[in-house]
Amino acid sequence: MPSFGEGERLAVTGSTHDAFGFRKTDDPEAHAKLVWRINEKILRNRAEIIETEDYFSEGSEIVLIAYGFTARTSLYVVNYLRKEGFKVGMLRLKTLWPFPEEVVSEIGERVKVSWSQK
């Protein structure tokens, strides 16, 4: 894809549509309604959407919180530190939004240290 202003002329728009499915890319009210509806749908179904993986957090004093490609390295570090005798665990966030506030808060209440890595 060429950079803007170089090469071909590109039309970049959202795929906003009205309640009947007709494209309304230049209608701010239709866009606001669509975004609000999708946002509310996601928030209502957060329990089904949120995914995390817990590694050794039970009984740990330190829990790393990782997401994306850093999770694999973080798990390697957790396994290494556990072999060295440290009480360390990891929470892998598989989804970022909606954010798993309840899971993170629950772990945060029972550990001495938590560390977030992006």
Would you kindly provide a written description of the structure presented here, covering whatever features stand out?
Helix content is 38%, strand content 17%. By secondary structure, it is an alpha/beta fold. Helix 3 (70-83) links the parallel strand 2 and strand 3.
Present the secondary structure layout:
Blueprint: H1 28-44, H2 46-49, E1 52-55, E2 62-67, H3 70-83, E3 88-93, H4 101-110, E4 113-116
Strand content: 15-25%
Measure the end-to-end span: 28 Å
Q: Write down the Rg.
A: 21 Å
- By DSSP, the count of extended strands is 4
Share of helix among residues?
Answer: 25-40%
Low-confidence stretches: none
Strand order of the largest sheet: 1-3-2-4
Secondary structure category: alpha/beta
Number of helical segments?
4
Helices and strands, in order, run as HHEEHEHE
Main traits of this protein?
elongated; 4 strands; 118 residues; 4-stranded mixed β-sheet; 17% strand; alpha/beta
Summarize the entry for a quick read.
This protein is an alpha/beta fold.
